[in-house]
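so i finally got all the pieces together for this one. its two components total, 755 residues if u count the protein bits. some of the lines might not be protein, just check the labels. i wanna see the whole assembly predicted at once instead of chain by chain like last time, that was a mess tbh
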Amino acid sequence: MKCLICGRETSGDLCKYHLAAKAKVDEAYPKWVKAFGGIEWKEYLDNVKRNVQTGQWAKEIAEFLQSG
Amino acid sequence: MGSGYTLVICEKPDAARRVSGALSGGDFRSELVDGTTVFRFARNREDFVVCSAQGHVYGVSDPAKERSVYPVFDVEWYSSDLVDEDSASAARRIAAVRKLAAGASKFVNACDFDVEGETIGFNLLRYACGGREGVALRARFSTLTQEDLVKAFDDLRPQEGQGLARAGRARHAIDFVWGVNLSRALSQSALGSGHRYRTVSVGRVQGPTLGFLVEREREIREFVPLPYWKVVGTFDRGGRKFNADYSKPKVEERALARQVREECLGKEAVATMVRKSIARMGPPVPFNIGDLQKEAYRAFGYSPSRTLQVVERLYLGALISYPRTGSQRLPPSINYRQILQGIGRAREYSVFVAELLKSEPKPVQGAKSDPAHPAIHPTGERPSSPLDSAESTLLDLVTRRFLAAFGPSARRELVDVTLGVGEHEFRIGGGRTLFQGWMRYLGKFAGYRDAEPPEISEGDRFNVVDVLVDQKFEQRPPRYNQSSLLERMESEVIGTKATRADTISTLVEREYVSGGSMEVTDLGLSVVETMAKYAPSIISTQLTREIEEKLEAVEGGVEGGAALLRETVRSVAGQVAELSANEEAVGREIDSALMATVAKAFVLGRCPVCKTGELRVIRSKRTKKRFVGCSNYPNGCRASAPLPQRGTVKPTPRICEHCSWPIVQIMGGRRPWRLCVDPRCPGKGKP
């Protein structure tokens, strides 16, 4: 199988790089919720995607999750 | 001159000329032997012939020299031109030394006194001079000044133990066995996937170094920033305003940051603590090569390999001491006073030198030492020909650092003020230089700036004028640059002071990382991941470090190089077998990364005409010329532009502000230049 985002060989939907990035995106969400006193998942993804500090794979995951 | 002369072997042609000039008092003649310049003169009624290598003229290879064959564990030394196409003059130089050796009665090894120099001299004496490595005398010097060279030749010594040469030869053999087998295994795997041959190398030091870069690259690409708030208070007393940071630099919740603002606005602040201290700051220790490379990168952006090349030229010009040293110490034997007097002849340093010579000069010493050479220092000699910009810049840096090492300590006043507003605290810090001491000698390289806080005493009261709450995001980890990577290699004790810069350059050449930002490419990622899966110890620092420690034992004569080579062969054989057994899978992984890396190197950016395609560098099958075209050409997009036919075209992330076409960098010639690829760009010709 190929990673749905980058086309690398993988045994699941996502390669190990994008899986690791997804874990980071998931892990950061509750921290953003606490920091802002609440933020919707979609708005969070949009912010992560647009933030200049976000890493390339995390941005790709945010975009992938938004479109899914 | 007939037979019976002393044959002196130097490491480089420039060194041979200097040695000849110094020993003959300038009365020497040059001649060509097999197309190589050698020098002849008489000294103390003894005839001398001085010849030179050009770096390594012998290299390690396997007898088959067939790049598709692996594993190979039989290694031999060959003339470098047979090993490396770029060493075409090696055979000529060896032939010249061989011819001259026939008429010599005495041999002197005058190559640089370190592992590489010893290896170069040893190999020439063994292979070109008919096994004279055991009887040759050694000239040891740390600068190429006349005084040092004369002293070295007045004090010629028998070769001691040859531990350095043995370690050097072992290092070359180990690195060859390591690199050639793993690189061939990787390259052949990629070739098996159906693409043309391309070297995919992984060296003994290269593997772990690339591992550091990949580890950081993954952190960067996975990074999700967390928000935080920075709170800054503005305070006022009698119309004089100043700012102070909230005591917690990062407030993690917006509500808490706003609460601080609300609880402080309109209140009165009291200076609850004013702490002043005087810090005595000793001078920086003398440069070793790693420290110099880091400082040159910090101050001028010079890559470590560029710095090494420039300081080697300064050494060959007898302007500084031998640069490939690990020492941070300046022994009295270098004659501080004489060097300072030499430096003082230059107008820009004369005042400093006069100050330093008022008393007996004594430098600060660093912790690191090197038995072969002192710390890098100027010789005090004046350049005999004009220096280029990089040479004069680095000579100035080395000279100022040398002067600073003799300077008195500087004194700085550090101030730390705490302002209390109810339960909240704000802080201001600052410092000012009370006495410059050595900082004056270092000038702009001293790196301390004064930031004086307002004059405040404990108990002083202020109005809180404003409290600014600024939302920020955590910064992702920085990529390594060439300097910080060098530092990491040093701290992990991998590579040597002489080879670390070359290892970094090789990573760029192999396209494992991009040169400027040190961003790891898909290929770099893939090489490390493949190694981690099939040959993990190759990218571990532990194995490389262990070998490095054992090589040091060989240098010291504690161990023999042969046993270490056998041990390495055993270790590499197991890893190669694992790679070989998985050749198909390895090939697939490397190959797709190779294609992605190559493809990315040709993509310049989004097409500004059709807005959906990518502009790429394309080579015309008919004219063989390169140009820019859109990937949407089959769908009708006709965006295209010519490109310069010389130099390497590198994509940049920049878009032209005038026409929205990509800006590329053209590498080649004296310095790289940027170009908007649109020939019709309205910005063309504008300053």
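The domain at 227-276+410-473 of chain B is CATH 2.70.20.10 (Topoisomerase I; domain 3).
Chain B has a mean pLDDT of 88.
anyway lmk what u think
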